[in-house]
Design goal:
Layout: H1 2-17, E1 26-29, H2 34-46, H3 59-69, E2 73-76, H4 84-94
Parallel strand pairs: 1-2
Helix pairs in contact: 1-2, 3-4
Length: 108
Amino acid sequence: MFQVEDYSNQVAQVFKDQGYKKGDAVALFLENRPEFVCLWLGLAKLGVIVPLINYNLRDQSLLHSINVADSQAIIFGSELSQGTLVSILRRAVARRPRPNDSTRVRCH
């Protein structure tokens, strides 16, 4: 349990340092992995809204879910950093303002 607490505190601190605050939205688009819960908890500690996007969605369904989530950022795994999925994610995120436009958070 302490590992979860420590990891989620680190997540909260990173996003706080990036300017995220209560009421902002950061979507999670990840396959099942241990970090998923820690990311969710860390963001929740800041009061950040965390839309959970189904990892099995593709194409128009994925784009629709991202648009409906209305998030300032999306956390996704490195396995999605290549190919058409990343282009869908970039298209959706490109229209969203970030709290601190000079920095980016990247998870692997």
